Amino acid sequence: MAEKGVLQRYLSVGEVARRCGIAVSAVHFYERKGLISSIRTDGNQRRFHRGVLRKLAIIKVAQKTGIPLSEIGDAFEKLPPNTVPTAKDWEKLSSQWRDDLNDRIEQLTRLRDQLGQCIGCGCLSISDCPLRNPYDELAGDGPGARLLEVEEE
C-alpha cells in the first residue's frame, strides 16, 4: 500500500500536460531546458513529482509577463533544490521580476507616446529619432541602420 502512495505523488508527462493546460512537447521542452526534472520508471517512462505543477504555473505566469526562460531558470537555481516552490519563494521571484517589468512598462509607454513621430521612416539613425537613436548616438558608427537599446540612467 505504501508503494501506491509513492506512485500517486508522481505524474506521467500526459497528466502533467493535462493538469497544466500545456502540450506534452512543452513539458519535454521545459525539462530539456532544465527548468523541471523527472525520474524514470523501470520501464524508462518519465514521472514527475507533483511539485512540478507549481513550477510550471510559475513558468507560465513569468512568460506571460515577458520574462525570458533563461531568467526563469536563473531564479529557479536560487531556490532550494528538490523542493516545491512556496508562497515565500514566489514572493522572492516576483519581486525580482517586478522591477524589470516596471522598467519595460515605462519603456513601452515612452515608445507608444513617441510612435507617431516615427511611423515608417525605417532609418534608425537620423538625429531626431527618439525611439531608437536618441541624441544621434549612432552617428559615430557610420551611416546606415543600426539597432540600439539605450540604457536609461
UniProtKB/TrEMBL annotation:
The keyword DNA-binding applies. It comes from the Bacteria. PROSITE patterns: HTH_MERR_1 (PS00552), HTH_MERR_2 (PS50937). Residues 10-78 form the HTH merR-type domain. Pfam families: MerR (PF00376), MerR-DNA-bind (PF09278). Signal peptide: none annotated. One of its GO terms (molecular function) is metal ion binding. Keywords: 2Fe-2S, DNA-binding, Iron, Iron-sulfur, Metal-binding, Transcription, Transcription regulation. The keyword Metal-binding applies. One of its GO terms (biological process) is response to oxidative stress. Transmembrane segments: none annotated. NCBIfam families: SoxR (TIGR01950). PANTHER family: REDOX-CYCLING DRUG-SENSING TRANSCRIPTIONAL ACTIVATOR SOXR, REDOX-SENSITIVE TRANSCRIPTIONAL ACTIVATOR SOXR. This is MerR family transcriptional regulator. It comes from Thalassospira profundimaris.
